[in-house]
What we know:
35% of the residues lie in helices and 26% in strands. The protein is of the alpha/beta class.
Amino acid sequence: MRKSLLSGLxxxxxxxxxxxxxxVLRMAAEVDFPPHLILQDQGWQGQSVELLQLLAKEVGCxxxxxxxxxxxxxxxxxxxxxxxVSHLSYSEARKSDFAFIGPHHIESIWLIGNPDKLPKxxxxxxxxxxxxxxxxAELNGAYYGEEFELLKQNPFFARQLVSISSIQxxxxxLEAGRVNAILEDESVLYYWQTxxxxxxxxxxxxxxxxxxxxxxGFSKKTLSTxxxxxxxxxxxxxxxxxxxxxxxxxxxxxxxxxxxxSTIL
Length: 265
């Protein structure tokens, strides 16, 4: 009896070890979302990638990057095909599907364009009646704040919006003249300019649209509560060690003091 019990315990231990060693976190990634996700010949790089690599190592998991547009990624989290996404804003509607680990970035969404070719915009509300920019690219499925959501209900503004499915199309559309302005995080424009992307120096932030902390959104469908708690504690440990701030400062020109952990499980 004792021998059978010991054999059973050994089998369970081996099974547990196998699960631990095979831990893989599947993350949605799109090509070219610098400085956060950058696809190079040698693999994925960037701010979000480095932070996730630190976090995965701390909990004993490997990372697997799966190319998927933003809106599809959100659906794949719900279906169990993915384990996490980055740059997820908190909302009550998302709380049932996601655990929010972070924040890993303070997103500052601006209306960006060439000020020499556009009418002056002093505030977001100007776009509701006074200023017509022609065509403005927005990412399908992205959240740009309550004020923007209300503004989209205004027919004068709504007809200016062009919905696109991938982040990397924004700059190309702007350069080609197919849109006159885009909605984008200031850190992305900073990367374009410091890395001398074509015509990037001509584009400037015109008006602030929305500012909010963004998180790594982990799936509550594919990850256990115990794993989510483990991830939370690991993130706090990395923050206390100064590794999060050290990583972010390599990519951002602003301070990271506001990245104090505020995980929501």
